[in-house]
Design goal:
Length: 276
């Protein structure tokens, strides 16, 4: 018993050290955002801002040449729309590949999975030509739609659907439900962990996307947060207080989403890998 407690204590100590290593850059970023300009650029870093100030946030959110608040709103709309579109397209496709019997299902799934190995850089020019033909350049649909039909969501949800007991669908069918009703009333409510996980991953992918928005968003007020903050960094390369404040603003939605959805994320990821 004593040996077991010692091992558990050592394990907790190791995990605490690892967690501290991961959290320390985030804490220092937050601390620096509340420092004055001089303290933020000091050669000897301090973990406690003295004096603490909100000047960096006032400057970032009030800058007329760098509309950070507009970039934040653009990113929020784009990431939310992208996540919703990913769920709307991947969910029925994954259910069909997991539960419906039809000729060529295995071939279709193989082709879908094979597209995961295509480097995204190859698709930049074709996607831009399509977006240009649709006259979406410099608009939010250009960063919402093109990447929403990826194969990862189909693969991820299919693996989850395969873990659901088939008896539930058979019972619903005996009760008179058709396939569409089974999908809406039985499968989707049971798939909340996987759907939340995929939605969160799609949101994060779009929120953090840097290269594609630079290609299709041209005017400063149309930029998303990663692309806009890159321009902001070039204009304020020595203002570490401003850079950290911008980084904190970009991190807040991601951290809040994970805190709220972590229970479903853990369950969705664990259950999606149980059955191939």
């Amino acid at each position: 018993m004593a040996v077991r407690k010692l091992r558990r204590s050592l394990l907790h100590l190791v995990l605490a050290v690892v967690a501290l290593g991961y959290l320390s850059p985030l804490v220092y970023m937050l601390v620096t955002s509340f420092k004055t300009r001089g303290d933020a650029g000091a050669t000897e870093p301090a973990w406690i801002p003295d004096p603490a100030t909100l000047d960096a946030y006032r400057h970032v959110l009030g800058a007329t040449d760098s509309p950070v608040a507009q970039w934040f709103l653009n990113s929020l709309l784009a990431a939310t729309g992208h996540a919703a579109l990913v769920l709307a397209t991947a969910t029925p496709a994954a259910y069909a590949l997991a539960r419906l019997e039809f000729r060529g299902r295995g071939v279709i799934f193989t082709v879908v999975v094979a597209t995961l190995f295509v480097p995204p850089m190859i698709l930049l020019i074709p996607n831009f030509l399509i977006v240009n033909e649709l006259m979406w350049v410099d608009t939010l649909p250009a960063v919402i739609v093109p990447m929403a039909g990826g194969a990862f969501g189909v693969f991820f949800l299919r693996q989850f659907f395969l873990t659901l007991p088939g008896e539930l669908e058979e019972a619903a069918e005996l009760d008179g439900c058709n396939r569409w009703q089974i999908f809406l009333r039985v499968v989707l409510p049971l798939s909340r962990p996987a759907l939340v996980t995929l939605g969160l991953l799609a949101f994060l992918m779009n929120w953090n996307d840097f290269l594609w928005p630079l290609y299709v968003l041209l005017s400063p007020e149309s930029l998303t947060l990663p692309a806009g903050l890159a321009n902001f960094q070039n204009a304020n390369s020595i203002r570490y207080d401003l850079l950290m404040a911008g980084a904190v603003i970009a991190s807040v939605p991601v951290l809040l989403l994970y805190v709220v959805a972590q229970r479903w994320v853990i369950e969705g990821v664990s259950r999606s890998g149980l059955k191939g």
